[in-house]
Amino acid sequence: MNAPSISAPIAHAFDPATWLTDFTALGGAYHLRDNSLGLAIILVNQTDAELSLARMMTASLTATEKTALYHHLRATSANAEGC
Fold first, then answer.
1. Below-50 pLDDT ranges, the chain
2. How far apart are CA 54 and CA 28, in angstroms?
3. What backbone phi and psi angles, to 5 degrees, belong to 9?
4. What pTM was computed for the model?
5. Exposed, middle or buried, 28 (CB in 10 Å: 0-12/13-18/19+)?
């Protein structure tokens, strides 16, 4: 009998809305242009740990995740314009 492998990593789906909520809570900001997305960290009153986490969040983004953020923001802004 073959036992299932418990050492395989569990893949978590990237959730652009949650990522943006967490990023902006740490002082993160974004700028959506026609064909690109700019990310920045606005220095206000963050702790060193919060700044490190915000930097890590941007540094660890894959191209696929950044594209997902871009499309999420595009869809969100299109919905807001329709209101």
1. 82-83
2. 7
3. -65, 150
4. 0.77
5. buried
